[in-house]
Every structure is written in structure tokens, then in C-alpha cells.
Specification:
Helices cover 28% and strands 22% of the residues. It is α+β, with helices and mostly antiparallel strands. The strands form six sheets. Strands 1, 2, 8, 9, 10, 11, 22 and 23 form an eight-stranded mixed beta sheet that branches. Strands 13, 14, 16, 17, 19 and 20 form a six-stranded antiparallel beta sheet that branches. Helix 1 runs parallel beside helix 6. The longest helix has 24 residues.
């Protein structure tokens, strides 16, 4: 028999956006809730997000801003992009649920959101929104408003990877979203939150209902009895090399932008009791600038340069949305068409530093990157090619061809600048710049990810399904612990955080509805 050391109505695993929304909803609805976070910081991968955005069409923030969007248009766009890879009802539930969730959250004065225009990632798909009016974010929060969490919210990445100081003025982006929810949860004495506490096992009764969990804290295993339900929102398994290899996820754990707590422990606990899974070889991809520590880190906003492979040939639209760009790289790697690293080739118009305006992890010094063999400079393209080990004539021909396209005013080869997102960082101008001012430079890139997106199959309320498609009573999932409704695509910025929030909230509301029906 389990030796219960604690009990609650709802147990939530994970403290990213999904876990925090689940815990907040449970506490606000009058349930006793325990949140467990495997690491020593709150926030998970959400806290690393520079924008911390949510893709929630027609939500109250955007309505107040005067949007003329409709849910029907958003649904048409989302389904056109995702297709039939995931259940249509799951897709529709996500698209329809964001607006009422924000309406619910805005009733709390701690939770303040603002419009953050960000164009949809498939600008040519039907009903794509090119003005960014489907995207919002949490408003920045002064650290002095929640000083108790200054050193307890994960990130920013420069703090963890480069030893930078923790910001002492504002929580920004994903950190603002996390800090706001921590402050909101703090209002409710029925909620408790525990760091360094990982969920490692699920416990069931003789009928198969999940009635508790084993958590591990500082090497000690403890059993928590759960009266109503468990919500698994503990991230993906991107930080677990063994699981990545098992499920065939390209790339390396060292190169993920996911939280170190994203080890897949919640996945494995659910799979052990019969949970079904989907999309387990998938991730949210991005190109990654390689840093002197050997890790490739998510990078975007390129104001110049082109990418070339080991043959010295250009192969992609460099200004495409990061997941679409990343998928080209992954497909070519899997097809044996290229190897890593690939190279950004650029000229000296802005100096020797790569024209990358949002590296996510700040660049180290020029000297460190040169010493690490990651950045190279030469007076001619031929000499540059020799330094990075690619065919010289191919590189010369590639750059010549690109410069011809720039002169002609369009990228006929890869369509760079053809979609709204491509021009989001160039003030609407065509984002192609000639490479003609020596000396010439090269910077090494690899493949990074923002986390895995394969996980537990669920219904529209986050109920985890078994291999027969039947719900496992008492068990729910959200975020990257749940198989993503977006399938093998990334429809728009804020999809990972948005889906995490929606399905965690819906899971707890379903728990509340079940409790209410029992008391009738």
C-alpha cells in the first residue's frame, strides 16, 4: 500500500506556462493543488522565450485593439497549415479556446497582456494574418512588484550559459508571464509549489484510475495522493539524449533551447501505465548559431548573409520562419544531402560579427569565436572557402548568383522576401543584401530546437488516452508533454506556449466539471 505523505485535489507537474495555468485555475476554482517542478527554478522552457507570446486569435486584447479577424478565418488558416496530421477537433479546440482563456485570466489584476504583432508563419496559406493580429504577450513586470521570485524564475539564457547578472528591473517576455502567474497563484492558500521535486511514477487503484504519484526530492521518493486528477505539463524530452535517440529526434540534447528539466520523466511515467503517444520524432526546430562552448543556439533576425552547405551551395530561404527553415535542414540531413556545420557567408558591410540580431544566447567575443574555429575571415571568397573546407568555385558561383538576384530585386531561387514574416525584420523591405565588400566572413551554424513536441495523445480536454483511444481516468497532459495539435508544423509564434496554456486550463476545468457532477 502507498505511504501517502501528502494529498491534494490536483497535482500539476511542471512550472512552465501550462503548469502554472493549470495550478492557477485549480486554486482559483477552489481546489487544493500541489505543483511540483523538477529543477531549482520556476518557468521551464517558457521562461527562456524572449517574447513569451501566445497565438490566440480574436482574444479580448486584440478585440480592444480593433482587429477584424474572425475565429472562422483563423480556423481555416490553422487547418490549411496543419492538415489532417492531428485530429480536427483538437485543432479547433485550440483555436477557439484562446480567447475565452484570456477573458478568464484578465479578471485577475495580476495577469495583464498586450498585443505583440507577429505575422503568421505560412503567409501564403488561406486566411493567413500578415499583420500579426493573432499574437499577444504578457506585459513586462517590474521586479520590485515580485522580488521574491527574482532568483527563482529560470533564465534569461545569458544568466545560465554566460554567467550574466539576473535582471533586477523587469521580468520580460516568458519570464514576465511566469512571474505574473506565480504572483497570481500566491493569492490562494490552497496552492503550494515545490522546486527540486520531479514526478517519476503514477499510481493507480484497482480500476485503473490514477490516484497519486511518486515524486522525488533530493533523492527521497514520496507518495502524494490525488483526489481529482494529475496534469502533466512537464515539458518535452529534448534534454534526454537516450530518449531522443530512442524516438529518432534529430539533433542533440546539448543544442536544445529547452529547460534542463525537460527529460521526459512525465512521458515515461504515463507510458508505463499504458498511455499512447504521437509525434515522438518531432520538435520545434530552428537554425542554431554555434557558440564557443560547442552548443548551437536558436538564432533569428538575419540582416545579411546567406547559408551555404558543405558543397558551398545555397539551399534555403534564410529569412523563413525558424521552424520552416529548421525543417529544411533536418530533411537534408536525414536525406544525406548535407552535413553540419553549415555556414553563414557575409561581407564586411557591418564588420566581422555575423549579421544576427537575435542570437538568443549573446555572442561571445570575436577572438573567442575565431579561436574556436567558428568564425573565419579572408580577403577573397576563394581563400574563405579554403578556410572552411568547401569548394572554392562553388562558393564564388553561389555568391555571384545571389548578387545577381539582389540586383534583379528578388530571390527567384528560394523566395526570400516573398512572405510577410521574411520582411518582419527589415521594415517591410526585401531582406536580401549583396555580398561584395571584402573582406569576407563565415560563421558556423548547426540545428537547434525549442523543445520536442511529441507526447501523450489526449482528447480535447487534455485527458490522456490509452492505446485503444480511451481516457485514462484521472490523468491529463498539456504543453510539450502532450502530442502537439499542430502536428509537424509551426503555424505561428506563440503556438507552443498557447497550446500549453489552453489544454492545461481545459484539463482543470474538466476536473472541476467532473467534481461538480459527482455532487449533484
Amino acid at each position: 500500500m502507498p505511504q501517502w505523505i501528502d494529498e491534494c485535489d490536483v497535482l500539476v507537474a511542471g512550472s512552465g506556462a501550462g503548469g502554472l495555468v493549470g495550478a492557477y485555475t485549480a486554486a482559483r476554482e477552489g481546489l487544493d493543488v500541489i505543483l511540483v517542478e523538477a529543477t531549482d527554478k520556476f518557468g521551464g522552457t517558457t521562461a527562456y522565450s524572449g517574447g513569451g507570446g501566445m497565438w490566440f486569435p480574436c482574444n479580448p486584447v486584440l478585440v480592444r485593439a480593433g482587429t477584424d479577424d474572425t475565429i472562422e478565418d483563423a480556423l481555416e488558416y490553422y487547418h490549411a497549415v496543419v492538415g489532417d496530421r492531428t485530429p480536427r477537433e483538437l485543432q479547433e479546440t485550440y483555436v477557439r479556446s484562446g480567447a475565452p482563456l484570456i477573458e478568464y485570466l484578465e479578471q485577475d489584476e495580476n495577469l495583464i497582456f498586450q498585443a505583440m504583432p507577429w505575422p503568421d508563419y505560412y503567409g501564403k496559406a488561406p486566411k493567413a494574418r500578415l499583420d500579426g493580429q493573432r499574437h499577444i504577450a504578457a506585459r513586462n513586470l517590474r521586479v520590485e512588484k515580485a522580488p521574491q521570485y527574482r532568483d527563482l524564475v529560470r533564465g534569461p539564457l545569458d544568466v545560465e550559459r554566460l554567467g550574466a547578472e539576473v535582471p533586477d528591473k523587469y521580468y520580460v517576455g516568458g519570464r514576465a508571464l511566469v512571474a505574473r502567474f506565480l504572483t497570481a497563484i500566491e493569492q490562494y492558500p490552497s496552492a503550494t509549489m515545490h522546486l527540486n521535486t520531479a514526478l517519476v511514477e503514477l499510481l493507480r487503484d484497482e480500476d485503473g484510475t490514477v490516484i497519486g504519484a511518486v515524486v522525488e526530492h533530493e533523492g527521497t521518493r514520496k507518495e502524494i495522493r490525488v483526489r481529482r486528477g494529475i496534469v502533466l505539463a512537464a515539458g518535452g524530452f529534448e534534454a534526454n539524449t537516450e530518449l531522443r535517440d530512442r524516438y529518432g529526434v534529430p539533433g542533440h540534447a546539448r543544442d536544445t533551447m529547452g529547460s534542463p528539466g525537460s527529460t521526459g520523466a512525465a512521458h515515461e511515467a504515463a507510458i508505463a501505465i499504458g498511455a499512447d503517444t504521437d509525434l515522438m520524432d518531432q520538435a520545434w526546430w530552428s537554425p542554431g548559431l554555434i557558440h564557443p562552448d560547442g552548443r548551437a543556439a536558436f538564432a533569428l533576425w538575419f540582416t545579411g548573409g546567406i547559408f551555404v552547405d558543405s558543397d558551398g551551395k545555397r539551399f534555403v530561404n534564410e529569412s523563413a520562419p525558424y521552424d520552416r527553415l529548421g525543417r529544411v535542414i533536418v530533411d537534408r540531413l536525414q536525406g544525406g544531402e548535407m552535413t553540419l556545420p553549415f555556414w553563414m557567408i557575409y561581407d564586411d558591410k557591418s564588420g566581422a560579427v555575423p549579421p544576427v540580431q537575435a542570437p538568443n544566447v549573446s555572442m561571445s567575443s570575436l577572438e573567442q569565436n575565431v579561436e574556436a574555429g567558428l568564425w573565419h575571415t579572408a580577403d577573397t571568397l576563394e581563400d574563405l572557402a579554403a578556410k572552411i573546407g568547401i569548394p572554392a568555385q562553388n562558393l564564388v558561383d553561389t555568391v555571384d548568383r545571389f548578387n545577381q538576384l539582389v540586383a534583379a530585386g528578388g530571390d527567384a531561387d528560394f523566395g526570400r522576401g516573398d512572405e510577410a514574416y521574411d520582411r518582419a525584420f527589415s521594415g517591410g523591405d526585401l531582406p536580401i543584401v549583396s555580398i561584395d565588400k571584402g573582406p569576407f566572413h563565415a560563421a558556423a551554424f548547426g540545428i537547434s530546437d525549442l523543445g520536442t513536441k511529441g507526447g501523450l495523445r489526449t482528447d480535447i480536454d487534455g485527458r490522456v488516452l490509452d492505446g485503444n483511444g480511451e481516457p485514462i481516468r484521472g490523468l491529463f497532459a498539456a504543453g510539450n508533454t502532450m502530442a502537439a495539435p499542430s502536428g509537424t508544423t509551426y503555424p505561428g509564434g506563440g503556438n507552443p506556449i498557447g497550446t500549453s496554456m489552453v489544454f492545461s486550463h481545459r484539463a482543470v476545468r474538466a476536473i472541476c466539471d467532473e467534481a461538480a457532477s459527482e455532487h449533484k
